[in-house]
Batch of 4 targets.
Target 1
Amino acid sequence: MAARPMPDAPARVRQRQRAAGGWRIWWEPEAAVRELGFAAVELDVQRLTWSAREASRLNKLVAQSRAGVAPTAATGGVRTVAALIAAFTASPAWGELSPDTQRDYRGGFRIIDQKWGGWQVVLFRRGIVVEWFEALHRDRGAYQAKSIMRKLSLLMSYAERREWIEANPCLRLRIPTPAPRDRVVQWHEFDALLTAAAQLGHDGMALAIAIGWFTGQRRRDILTATAGQVGADGVWRFTRSKAATGSAQAPGAIKLHSELRPLVQARLDLAATDAAPLCLDAATGVALSDDLAGKRWAAVRDAAAIACPSVIDVQFRDLRRSWAHWSREGGASDRDRADGMGNQSDRNARLSQTYNPPTMAGATRAVDAVRRPIAPKRAAGGA
């Protein structure tokens, strides 16, 4: 084996020789550090000095995180990426975003900060952005690479408005858009998930799964649902966390399915107040938070996969798409399903590709709708 490119590499730097003879070097956090929100970062074998500095910077961030000290942006007027993130998250535009959107952005910003936090924004060029996208695409996949690039472009647009840079280097990169996720949960898979949740005693997750399956609503709206939102008429009225128009305050209302209503009623019978959460975690006695719901979902899915292996790749968000699929199979129109989900999937091409993909049942209905016109009967004795 040839000598390593960085013989005195900082802690957490990994170096591996490729089959073709080149080297790959990267910063790899251990499991305990990953739990703090850090992820692996690719380094540059052609820029070993920079790579060493970057690894040392990341190690410093880890030490600060463990000590409970928030990493600070560079001082002295240097307009770094870390400073840009801090400025954007303190801006009025940030405050207008919904909590779910802020949470999603923070995850992407964390990855961007780990890679580029110490860099001056003005140093970014299109070539650097393209190279990083290709590395992300290779290491994290098309979906996450596209998502991170979108968040970096958002930051750079803000930097352009603040006149930190003359132009956004993330524009017009011709980054391919990955096909939307198309996983549809089958009925027997839903039954397996519900059975596993009941066997594990995760009643709150069982109800959340049922609500997602029978209403097609977003996970955030399901987890924050309360007893008082369900009326005696069997209609769940709530405020959508995300609206078709982009507003964070949009009313939603959907009738509970006949199979769902008794499950919800069983919970309502136990709720002490209207503010009581519908999806109550039995083990902790509190509402399912995002983190707790993620843990319960993983446990339920793994247990269900023992009897039904195909569910192992199912994500909670697939329940929403599956509702749209099965509703369409039952004959609901695109407009009706869009009304139910509170989006514009009947008009927006991208959303339509996700929620209204072609189906054999739909094509069959269209084929069977073709009828030969019936010729009018001639009157008796007519010419």
Target 2
Amino acid sequence: MKKTNNQLKSNTFFDINKLPKEEGLLIFPISMSRATTGQSPKELVDYIFHFSPSKIFVPEVGLNFIYGDYLYFWSSEKASTLKKKFTEMVWNHKNGLQKLIYKHKQDFQIQHAFNYMVWNELYLNSKDFITNFKITQKLYKQDKQFRKYINDDAKLAKKKLDDNNLNFFLEEHLMLYLIMKKKIKLANDYIQNKEKWILICYPGKAPKGLIYLVQKNPLKLAKVQEYEGQYDLETKKFVDFERVDLKNY
């Protein structure tokens, strides 16, 4: 007998033993609020060692670091203040990462497999971002469950859910949803848009609002790759969003 979607949901998740033996991308989104703490260059390199070489069996994997700088412009702070702050932060963080990756060049021999992106690039590489963002905002207004889960995300992040923080969460969740659905081109000199799979990796629990958005799939996007979820770099487990029971998550 075929299992229903509800029967498949268990909230029990496991590590990934082996990544697919085909071209793929690891995606490390960098939160600017954690760039010097939980996502410092040293900590990120330690996370990379968790994948390489034990989980990568063919030299066909790239890694993109995506800085969330422009996402933080959902703020009441002056734009000039934020620009100065995040330009320096991204520059210093990227240089620190590059130095450590080069230091371990014997382990990470394909240096051009590592790519660095800022949030603005995602807008340009998305065909219908503005339209999709408006659809996501409309979903928030109309869907009681979505509002509840976004509110839960704000509480977990210890943020007041004002207009700026609301749009922050909606945009962040939408962008990751689009990345999972391969609706955003992710430049990588090594893989060159040939990736068959994309794995989003982040230290910490996956946001409820993001999980709900992927499950709800308001844009009616087909599943085009294996990893619709988040690899938790802290627990070393892949959270498959299709299997998440949000009521008990």
Target 3
Amino acid sequence: MKNTIIGVVVLVLIGFGLYFLIYKTPAKAPIVKDQGVTVDLKTEADNQSAGQVNKDQSVIGKSMEDRDITAYHYGDGETKLLFVGGIHGGYEWNTVLVVYEAMDYLKANPDVIPSNVQVTVIPVLNPDGLNKVVGTDGRFTASDVPKSEAQVVSGRFNGNNVDLNRNFDCDWQATAKWQTKTVSGGSAAFSEPESLALKNYIETNNPTAVVVWYSAAGGVFSSNCHDGVLAQTRILTDTFAKASGYKGYEEFNFYEITGDMVNWLAKIKIPAISVLLTNHEDTEWDKNLAGIKALLQYYAK
């Protein structure tokens, strides 16, 4: 009799165990293989719910020192405007801040973007160079910039000590010039991960027009790679210059440059301008806001 009772108890316990094992254990998310890539659906869902996947921004590549190069997207129209800052990192840190101000403005005023336009903003193309100067590759303030001129100048170059604005495919040379100084243009056009990331982004997305901020000369400069200024580039230059109050120029000819980004864009027939801030400290936001708004109004037509 005792053995019978024990047997019944054991069977009941086994039954409860099987019930909880089958019906109460959460199902594990399936693992799916798509074109050779394994995806954990549960992890992907968790990332989305945690805000780690954001359609309004994308990482377009990595820097030499493995920092993200991030693009931020505003609007969803078919006309694509691309704004780029920080190609010279911490040396031209005010170009990063002016683009961050543009991002804040577009986020706070989404209605300013015409329905047919999408604006993509890359605030820091050279995050390694920015990090050398301000200690971060993200948001910072002018008070984070050191007083050491040598440290600020070092931030012009990427983690491979290459001047990224000498690494594009228009008159590229390995030994390049910056004012009277000799600088590295890299081992080949697009040898650096930052310039290659931008090249890949441009070729994939084919922007309608590109605006790149530099400092310091105080002007708006058309792009050109030995084939004349594109008609649309001339309109870009005139529109931004007239609205902002900067002087417009047919080309940058203060000294000879090789491997320039906007001139490469001209070579592949994409309208592009360089906006050079007047000095290395100020964002001149009111002037640049007026230029940005004028471009948005032009492309709304």
Target 4
Amino acid sequence: MKIAIVNLTSGGLSGGYLKYLVNLVPLLRQDPRVTKLDVFVPEGVLLPAQCGSLRLWPKRDGSAGFPALRGTLASLAPDVVFFPTARLVDCGAIPTVVMVRNMEPLLVPFGGNGWRESLRNLARARVAHRACDRASRVIAVSDYVRRFIVERWRLPSAKIGRVYHGVAAEPAAAAAPASLQQVGRFVFTAGSIRPARGLEDLIRATPALLRAHPDLAVVIGGKADAVSHDYEARMQHLAARQGVARAIVWTGQLSSAEMAWAYGRCAAFVVTSRAEACPNVALEALSHGAPVVSTSQDPMPEFFGGTATYYRPEHADELALRVTQIMAEPEPAAAARRESARARAAEFPWRRTADETVTELDLAAKREPRTEDRKPRTENRKP
């Protein structure tokens, strides 16, 4: 089977998405069912060497309807084109597969965002819906996402496959971040700093945590993107109003080694997010054996299972209680929790992700083209 992977992006690629490609693409190339694999990115976007040689399309190609990209795809004649970013380019009769991996625009397009970002999220949701509707097949990265597509968008369940992301079998080597070298016991959370992150739960829980553990630090890993600096400022102002600013360490973006260090040494890893599909940090925390306190919002229980302790979103008092309970566990129970987390992480290998992805692409490639697929699309033009 000849596969083309088209990474439709107007800018760079997120850290989580890069991890996805770096882990998936080499395994796809090794799959005996794959005879040829071409990976496309727009000019100016770089991928790590593990992804192999790339095919490019001009930066301005999208504004004209992607004629260069579509022309190259037509000449290569792949059996299927895979769009992992829930956007779609008309490929004529070539079967297409899209993947839905970002639930924020679909669930909380407003959710504390500024009006510009809210409008962008509405547009992203519309584009994703249209792409799923037009694609030959859709990959959802969790059962939760699959249910959303079927129940909210009314797409046929037979068209939607579920493929989890994976996590590295061996965690990255650890290195202490400079900002944490003087920190003692700490609670850790990580991810992009955006309104959908729900950091206010943890900040509001911090006064109660400090009453029980006065020397505790709350470490917030990750950075705000260009449209989320206002949210970051609001969270820092909230910490000041709560009287806990001194206890919170904002680390900014952490490297893989620094994340590994924090996962392995935190008293608890806290997940407060309001909108996730298949959170990379959840799988990484499990792989390092971190004790987890998570919001009960889907899809978190789908990934953590019985290894985590849960609290209801927006219930900061409940979050503080759960963290305090985990920190009070005797060592035998804590060791058992760490081992259980690592065992859970082992259920999400990248090789399974690659194998199931190829299976989904093969299902799309073998489908009988619809009548409208066989006909070349024409535009209405005045003579």
